Here is the input.
Amino acid sequence: MENLKALPIGRDDFEKLIGNNCYYVDKTKLIKKLLETKSEVTLITRPRRFGKTLTMSMLQNFFEYAGESSEDLFSGLEIEQERELCDTHKEQYPVISISLKSAKQGTYMNALEMLKQTISPEFKRHEKAVLAYNYEKDRIHRILNAEGGESDYLSSLQFLSQILYDYYGKKVIVLIDEYDVPLENAYFQGFYDEMATFIRSLFESVLKSNPCLEFAVVTGCLRISKESIFTGLNNLHIISILNHGYAEYFGFTEEEVKHLLEYYDLSDRMPDMKRWYDGYRFGDVEIYNPWSVLSFISDLREKRTSSPKPYWSNTSSNSIIKSLIETADLKTKSQIEDLIDGGVIRSIIHEDVTYEDIYQSKENLWNFLFFTGYLKKVSETLIDGMVYIDMKIPNKEVREIYKTKITEWFQERIKKTDLSLLYQAMFACETDKFQEQLEKQLHESISYYDGKEAFYHGFVLGLLSNMQDYLVESNREAGDGRPDILIKSYNVRKPAVILELKHAKTFQEMQRMAERAVVQIDKKHYARELKRDGYENIVKYGISFYKKNCYIVNR
Here is the structure.
């Protein structure tokens, strides 16, 4: 175990990853694919944390000029088998490489400042060539010191490509990672138009009709419409998760996951890997979530009996899911419930969208969920010239993210909801009104039933969380067992309430299950400690649930 390579969790710098003897899932054949395709600008979209940044770093290290004493980072990797390609292209180009992820800020001015702080270091990285340039010295000084105004940066990448071309006499490779982060953030923060204008100018100047450009690779999570960002860029080759090319170069294939587990002597956990982190399909290739695979292996190396967890939920923006849930109408809520229950949804797919389009139709929200990795393609159908895709939740990890976000949304909504009628009916033994108010909340919620009684238990506890001056206890020992929920005031003169919950398998079974629940309260003496503490008014409810229906019996 001591001689095994380290896991590259959180490492997106190729040079450091190789230099620190980390396990690298070899994606270097992407280099050959790019050179064979000969596209001038390639836009590759993949979900967050699927290896885009590490791959861009790998490309930079392969193509960029290096000193004579530099270490050969590609020794033993697949691309080294392509001797002629390596002799022609390896370490033969000036490279501009930036990531726009730091522009995720609350205001346009702060986001612009972070973009300036991103571009200025790239000028400093090429300082030898930049300082040798004999034109626009004042602008160069301002950019190097991150002091320039917005106008200094609108065409700054094109400016740098010109400087590098003049210095090296060779065309430049441009790598732009996380291109859509500033746009997504700006949309949700309310300054999308300003940010789109800046990004459009930055990209057009360096990617469109730039005589200094050899080729460019741009990566992101979503494909933003050409009209929004890439206006008039006719040389753009777009590779989304629907395309067959490049499919195996982002994320892990099943064979790669098997090799990882075998290397760390964890092959017996492959079923967990498949159930939790498989399910994505890029083109026709089955893909695993690489971040979650590596995180789970890390936990397993610490403790072989570790259970899988939704690691991806802490690394990916969930704004789209939250937006979908908050704006859901009755039909959409039903569709979300079907998805969580393992069902399939059919929707038209539009790859060319803008953030302004999200709320124009529910189909656009399904589109965003699909391209960001929260849904996967099951099948594809052409109807009247339109492409429809059947989609479902890809795996257990993503299903847990949906459930977690739905629970959080429910708790946020309950804090703003007046539930006084429900509370009053419950304490006053007005069973019909209590049932009516409880069903109303069920109908307005998004439900998932894989937990059966556990779901309804959590649902009722959520409704009771706003109660003032009352203590709500769950599954505490009482009498000869544990009542589901016990509600009591510190004032023993006020009524105490015992709730016993059941899940009915059919609508017709609800009454019988509710009656069984209320009998259980007496049979197991759940009220005994309350009586001993001085409570005289003790209300007992048996409640059964079937989907979004409930039946309440009072005793």
About this structure: The chain has four domains: 14-247, 251-314, 319-399, 417-554. The mean pLDDT is 90. DSSP finds 23 helices and 16 strands in the chain.
